Amino acid sequence: MITKQQFLTTFFDQLNEIGVDYFVYGEYRQLPVDTGGSDIDMVVNGKDFDKTTALLLSLAQKSKVIIASKYANANAHFYRCLSLDWGVQVDILRDGLHFKGVSYYPLAKLCKHVIRHNGIKVVNCEYGFFVDYFKEIIHKGKAKEKYRTAVMEALQNHEEELDEEIKEIYGDKALQLIKSNFTMDGLNHIGISLQQIIHRNILKGKTITQLQTKLVLAQRLFSKKPGYVIAVLGTDGSGKSTIINAITPWLNQGFHHGVIYNHLRPNVIPDLGVMFGKKKAIGKGEVPTVCSDPHGQKPSGFVGSLVRWGYYLLDYTFGYMKSVWKTIHIHSKVFIFDRYYYDYYIDQRRSRTSLPRWILRLGECMVPTPDLILCLGGDPQKIYNRKPETSLEEVTRQTHVLQDFCRNRNKAVWIDTTTTPQESIRAAQSAILKMLSVRFN
Asked: Are 395 and 235 in contact, with CB atoms under 8 Å apart?
């Protein structure tokens, strides 16, 4: 199996051999051995654009590296490449850097700072990080500390030249705002104001271009979606955390930090316990505390169960449409659900409901189906020994229910997690790769 270093080395060697006019913009210092936790942004001369994308796709096919996701706009093609051992995101940009279809930094100025690094044409880091400050401001209205540091150092070392450059590209107001707030905190504070000034400057008179960009974005809603949803099911002790913790960094390589974790549901609407002041709300990015006694509370009666189930069904439907559906149709993100709606079949006691199966099936008809459902299980005795929170009988029952569920869902795959962790993780990765290989290959 080809390594990341071999893949990247071959890719750049072939680009150089056929004379493609390109340069890598962004983090490059570990290339071609690795990407240093970054993606690869390549600026390519328009005449060589099709040649470059064709070369990448051909190399991926020959190397048995799958294109897990791809999408495009008028100025760029975006690829998410994945193998069993590694992943890399490659963004191929036509004739420079663009925002809403409009160039936001002159290509000619970038080309002046191109150097060779291990045989690869790159924009030197000092200047690249300086430009990255403006990239982040333009897109987000704020910039990371390393980019604020870079812009301060660059302006101190090349003040006259870069002052003139900023003034030429973004106007005197942008330059004066930066100069009058020339500290780390100051540059952080002016983010939104600077963004507004730059937007007015670069987007002025570009209404048609912006509308065309929005149209392309809207069309993506009805094309092959670049994002995915994976649900991970299993009884306590089945290894859900082990699998999720293993596949997340692997997927993040190919989708460049594009994995989004959700516990049980989209969590757009608050937990009932939070609403009634019985629980503390979970902050953004926080992992919920694992309950040590999932069956400690009695289920509600039929009416209470119906209300509880109906309330959370809103999250699985309308909440999903708000937080998941649009994202996976526009962006190459991967949502991982630790448990999902199907947990009602396996362990209603956990959700404090007690409803007949036909009601649960009715709800399932309204809930969007994940692209892949990983069902984790195996020998109930081994699972119980790992985490004896309920009883061996309950673990056995849940395992059998999950096995039956898995057999009757075409998006579900059984993963035996009572083997070694390495074998379980590999099986999960193989199932994910198989699913990812269908849409764009």
From this structure: yes
CB neighbour list of residue 320: distance below 8 Å, 6 or more residues apart: 266, 268, 367, 368
Name the β-bridge partners of 416.
Answer: 377
Q: Residue 165 is encoded by which pair of tokens?
A: 């450059």
Closest CA to 324 of 240, 251, 225: 225
Q: How many residues does the chain have?
A: 441
Q: What is the pLDDT of residues 264-273, one digit of tens each?
A: 999 999 988 7
Residue 98 phi/psi, 5° resolution?
A: -130, 150
CA distance 18 to 50: 13
pLDDT score at 349: 87
Q: Does domain 1-123 have CATH number 3.30.460?
A: yes
Mark out the alpha helices in 221-301 (DSSP H runs): 240-254, 272-275
Cα–Cα dist 416/238, whole Å: 9
- Count each helix (H run) and each strand (E run) in the chain, helices first: 20, 14
228-439 to CATH, choices 3.40.50.410, 3.40.640.10, 3.40.50.300, 2.60.40.420: 3.40.50.300
Q: Please, are residues 49 and 156 in contact by the beta-carbon 8 Å criterion?
A: no
229's tokens: 């949803």
This prediction has a pTM of: 0.92
- Domain residue ranges in the chain: 1-123, 126-223, 228-439
